[in-house]
Structure to design on (173 residues):
């Protein structure tokens, strides 16, 4: 009985060996491609997000890396013949991502609006602006929020709110 079990085990390993070798080759190629993609992503982030916002660069870079590694992991599972597990993990992750994106929708809206405000030449620190009836001077612009000086106090507002309704005031108003 022991020899039968050992023979079956050896036969199963021999049958799985081509899939495992293909999977290992895939992982090596995927690791190289991930390095290249991450170098391009990091270069792009350095050019598009200011140095003062390094935390955001790191966050975006980490999110991209996690997605790439997860995709490689699912592909590896499919290559080695575990397609049902790969499909289940993919579906569960999709639902999880949907929930997280819904929970973070306000933050994402502020970040996208912040990119537009950071790039807008008419919206700079020192400018006087009116935001829905509140007049103040821009102190600083960050990816998610902007700080204003209003009558000696500092006011902080989310960029999504600002981007919809700001007006630049002339200095002589």
């Amino acid at each position: 009985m022991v020899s039968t079990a050992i023979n079956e085990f050896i036969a199963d390993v021999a049958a799985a060996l081509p899939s495992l070798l293909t999977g290992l080759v895939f992982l090596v190629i995927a690791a190289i491609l991930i390095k290249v993609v991450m170098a391009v992503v990091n270069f792009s982030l350095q050019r598009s997000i200011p140095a003062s916002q390094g935390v955001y660069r790191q966050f975006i870079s980490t999110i991209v890396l996690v997605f790439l590694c997860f995709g490689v992991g699912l592909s590896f599972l499919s290559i080695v013949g575990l397609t049902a597990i790969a499909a289940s993990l993919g579906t569960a992750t999709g639902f999880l991502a949907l929930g997280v994106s819904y929970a973070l929708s306000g933050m994402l809206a502020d970040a996208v609006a912040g990119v537009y405000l950071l790039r807008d030449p008419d919206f700079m620190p020192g400018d006087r602006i009116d935001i829905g009836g509140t007049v103040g001077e821009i102190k600083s612009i960050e990816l998610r929020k902007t700080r204003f000086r209003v009558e000696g106090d500092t006011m902080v507002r989310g960029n999504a709110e600002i981007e919809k309704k700001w007006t630049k005031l002339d200095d002589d108003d």
Remarks:
- The helical segments are 2-48, 54-79, 83-103, 105-119, 159-165.
- The chain has a mean pLDDT of 86.
- The chain is about 65% helix and 15% strand.
- The first strand starts at residue 128 and ends at 131.
